[in-house]
Amino acid sequence: MGRPKQFEREQALQQAIGIFSEHGYEGSSTGVLLEGMGISRQSLYDTFGDKRQLYLEALQRYTSDNVGGLQRALSGAASPAVALESLFDAAIAQALADPNPRCLGISAICEFGRTDPEITALTDRSGAALGKALEDSLVRAKEAGAIAAGTDIVMAGQYLRATLSGIKLAARSGAPEATLRGIASLALRALH
User: Fold this and answer.
1) Does residue 39 lie within any of the structural domains?
2) Residue 2: left if φ>0, alpha if ψ -120 to 50, beta else—which one?
3) Residue 42, burial from CB neighbour count under 10 angstroms (0-12, 13-18, 19+)
4) How far is residue 35 from each of residues 26, 57, 142, measured CA to CA in Å?
5) Rg (Cα) of the chain, in Å, rounded?
6) Rounded distance, CA 16 to CA 9, Å?
7) Which listed residue, of 39, 49, 73, 101, carries a Cα 20 to 30 Å from 82's Cα?
8) pLDDT at 169
9) How many folded domains does the chain comprise?
10) What is residue 105's predicted lDDT score, i.e. its pLDDT?
């Protein structure tokens, strides 16, 4: 009978997400991952496979959790008029909750671009899910008269995705909450 695992898998995965977000794939040595996750090399291989498989699982989990949180902010709003405000509130709260804000999704895109098909597929799925949620919310906002009648829904969705990425980058560079809220406010005013 094998020895029981001496670590919590989910906690180790969250640690890996933080390490990969901070240092990227190439900058995260196996040694740094093992130390940060608090596991042995054999546990890494037995539980996650190799470093690449760990990275893919971390990226999948991060993007799923991140997009899911933004989708909940949009769908949980009291009205179409406040859904986009709720989206930005959630994004800003998420950025401010981390003392060292990072985004594994943005990091993956910056590090790999479109050179790795598996990573591209993960980031594309995540982007498409967020894009659909944004477009659905924008359609409802347009129908409710909360945004300009002539708004191009697809382009507005792309604009909001870019703004969300910009908020994450600004937070990582140390921008205060007032700056993040100012960026969100300008983005929302552009839709009127």
Assistant:
1) no
2) beta
3) exposed
4) 16, 18, 50
5) 19
6) 10
7) 101
8) 93
9) 1
10) 92
Q: What is the pLDDT of residues 59-80, one digit of tens each?
A: 999 999 999 999 999 999 999 8
pLDDT given at position 4: 47
Instruction: For the full predicted model, state whether its pTM sits above 0.70.
Output: yes
State how far the alpha carbon of 62 is from the alpha carbons of 57, 68, 88, in Å.
8, 10, 18
Residue type for 130, please?
L
Looking at the domain assignment, is residue 173 inside a domain? yes
Cα separation of 62 and 134, whole Å?
A: 19
Angle between helices 80-97 and 153-172 (to 10 degrees): 20
Alpha carbon separation from 106 to 21, 100, 103, 143, 168 (Å, rounded): 9, 15, 5, 32, 9
pLDDT of residue 6: 55
Q: What percent of the chain clears pLDDT 70, i.e. is strictly above it?
A: 96
The ranges of the chain with pLDDT < 50 are 1-4
Domain span including residue 177: 58-189
